[in-house]
Amino acid sequence: MATARASRTQRRTRIQEEKEEQILEAALEVFSSHGFRGSTIDQIAEVAGMSKPNLLYYFRTKEAIHGALIARVLDTWLEPLRAFDAKGNPESEIRSYIRRKLEMARDFPRESRLFANEILQGAPNVIDELKGPLKSLVDEKAAVIRTWAKDGKIARCDPYHLIFSIWSTTQHYADFDVQVRAVLGEQQSGQGRFEDAARFLEQLFLGGLAIQP
Question: Are 110 and 29 in contact (CB under 8 A)?
Answer without folding.
Answer: yes
